[in-house]
Amino acid sequence: MEFNQSHVAPLIDDEFQGQASKRVLSYIQGKRRQGMPVAGLYCVYAPMELIRAAGVVPAGLCSFANKTIPPAEAVLPANLCPLIKSSYGFIVTDSCPFFALADVVIAETTCDGKKKMFELITGYKPLFVMDLPQLPDQEEACRNWTAMIRNLGGFLEKTFERRISEARLEEEIQATNVKNNLMNRLFGYAAATPPVLSWNEAYELGLLAQAASTEDLQPVLEHALETLEQRKVSGVHYGKPRAPRVLVTGCPLGGDSLKAYRIIEEAGGVIVALDACTGMKPFKHFIEEGSGDPLAALAAYYLKIPCSCMTPNQKRLDDLDALIERFRPDAVVDVVLHACHAYNVESYKIMNHLKERHRLPLLKIETDYSNGDVEQIRTRVEALFDSLDR
Ligand code: BJ8
User: Fold this and answer.
1) pTM (whole model) above 0.85
2) What is the pLDDT of residues 14-30, one digit of tens each?
3) What string of H, E and C letters represents the secondary structure of 49-108?
4) Residue 237 CA to ligand 1 centre (angstroms)
5) For domain 20-164, which CATH number applies: 3.40.50.11890, 2.60.40.10, 3.40.50.11600, 3.90.110.10?
6) pLDDT at 350 over 80
7) In angstroms, what is the span from residue 60 Cα to ligand 1's centroid?
8) Residues flanking ligand 1, CB < 6 Å
9) What is the pLDDT of residues 162-192, one digit of tens each?
């Protein structure tokens, strides 16, 4: 039986059905009420284990709404990535509730636009910018990133007047490994044929898992695993059994840009893998435990994230190979946000790799947060599905 979100048991049983960011906000507000400080984040390179070991709650900051772009364009160029414009617009209009809760903001030198936008928000909250090495395979990269993580630790210790012990860091490393293992088991239900987990559920679980500690999250994830197993046993699945299976790669998506996922689904596809920082990417790898140097272990782990700001970025191709083997897509859709030059240029390499290695077609969609291109994207996705020889 094909499932319809309204007749199957939800994976997270609470009052926030379909309101993933409200669930996360409520979680962070709860921690704040318990007296925990909050760090606002813009990127998955922020070392969560260090932040948590300092007793600080990480909070992803708002960056996915079209409505905050016009106020941002009063300062920022119109031909800039919508994610950066939206992030800045949220700050200047004081409309990001996560930013309002944050005591500090942690940022990284990823792409140029983000880096320069961070200069413009200096002064709103204490800001710590981490200098991210962008040649991840060089020997110095791990050393330099370890030093930067150590510096962030110093900043957190000084700001919040506390010590981060190695023992706490090790506990947090182990907790991330437990969480990533659970998340990977959950994503396995999207790998089933037909899939049992929808893209929306995978996205929502990912959002919550980035915010919540493993201790708080573990019962939620275990309940979700049981629910998925029950669905599988009773033959409930997501999408039509012979629907084209799609892997979506590219820029992080959320809020208004989730239109890309919706269009694929409305065109009859099933999204089986979300290869983005707002999807499965942050949970893919594991951190070395008991290495004797937890900061270096963290540095090595975070440098495995294959962001297109890295060069060369062979890890993105390697991770794609593993995703393709596991989720067996019929096609790949690469979603590139307007003016994101790094993902846009990398798309050519991805297309050739998919063609040569996997004989898989790639559809590149360049889009922003508006609805102006919805019908054009729909036509292209439908043409892609029509072209598949299944
Ligand atoms: S690790 S993907 S979350 S930087 S803002 S690069 S879309 S032009 S978001 Fe990202 Fe960290 Fe990388 Fe992930 Fe392009 Fe826009 Fe830059 Fe962007």
Assistant:
1) yes
2) 888 889 999 999 999 99
3) HHHHHCCCEEEECCCCCHHHHHHHCCCCCCCCCHHHHHHHHHHHCCCCHHHHHCCEEEEE
4) 33
5) 3.40.50.11890
6) yes
7) 13
8) 43-45, 81, 83-84, 110-111, 113-114, 251-252, 277, 305, 307, 309, 337, 340, 342-343
9) 999 999 999 999 999 999 999 999 999 999 9
